[in-house]
Specification:
The protein is α+β, with helices and mostly antiparallel strands. The chain has two domains: 42 residues, Luciferase, Domain 3 (Luciferase, domain 3, Roll), CATH 2.30.38; 135 residues, GMP Synthetase, Chain A, domain 3 (2-Layer Sandwich), CATH 3.30.300. Helices cover 31% and strands 18% of the residues. The protein contains seven helices and seven strands; from the N terminus they run H-E-E-E-E-H-E-E-H-H-H-E-H-H. A hairpin with a 6-residue loop joins strand 5 and strand 6. Helix 2 packs across helix 5. The longest helix is centred in the middle third of the chain and has 16 residues. It is elongated. It starts with 7 loop residues before the first helix and ends in a 19-residue tail after the last helix. The model has no long low-confidence stretch (mean pLDDT 87). This is Acyl-CoA synthetase. One of its GO terms (molecular function) is long-chain fatty acid-CoA ligase activity.
Length: 195
């Protein structure tokens, strides 16, 4: 790429003096030399201790342990530990409600269901077992909503609009770090079914 036509400032940001194109992508190189795009530089989390983390890697690791998790947004920039907002997968949540004979398959009803919460807590714990200690999700909250592609929270390609979500859910994010946590905030290894 030679640059942006008629936009020298934009070109200077993207292409350096040596001709290297700076895409803003974070990549990983495997043992065979293959490159994989793992995240965007602007999305990296830098915690209070200065550790750089890819939220996409954390989110995908946890999501792999439960089809109930449709979308997840890890929060931890400038914080002592990571937390997450969890949004249920609409189809998997509906199937879960039918399988467990739940009369209400709305996002708000399912976000408060103890059996579903235990399943999500187990998935977060299983994902955490594959992550380094600093990357682990210490608390999470299931949001009582389903996010749709092209809506406020997701692009049409299902990427989380992180800044917008952080603004829209600022209260819920603050509650993830509150001491003591509210009843809507859960910890992956400490969740127990209420008797």
């Amino acid at each position: 790429m030679k640059g942006y036509r008629g936009e020298p400032d934009k070109t200077a940001e993207a292409v350096d003096r040596d001709g290297w194109l700076h895409t803003g992508d974070v990549i990983a190189i495997d043992d065979d030399g293959y490159l994989t795009v793992v995240d965007r530089k602007k999305d990296l989390i830098i915690n209070a201790a200065g550790k750089n983390m890819s939220p996409a890697i954390i989110e995908n690791t946890v999501k792999a342990h439960s089809p109930l998790i449709g979308t997840m947004m890890v929060v931890g920039d400038g914080r002592a530990y990571n937390t997450a907002l969890v949004v249920l997968d609409h189809d998997a949540a509906r199937a879960f409600a039918a399988q467990h004979n739940l009369p209400d398959s709305s996002a708000s009803a399912l976000a408060a269901d103890d059996t579903l919460l235990a399943s999500i807590a187990a998935a977060v714990a299983a994902g955490n077992a594959e992550l380094s200690r600093v990357e682990q999700v210490k608390r999470f909250r299931i949001l009582p909503a389903f996010w749709e592609p092209g809506g406020d929270e997701l692009t049409l390609t299902l990427k989380v609009r992180r800044r917008l979500v952080a603004e829209k859910y600022a209260t819920e994010i603050a509650e993830l770090y509150a001491q003591p946590p509210s009843g809507a905030v859960h910890e992956p290894l400490r969740f127990e079914l209420r008797s």
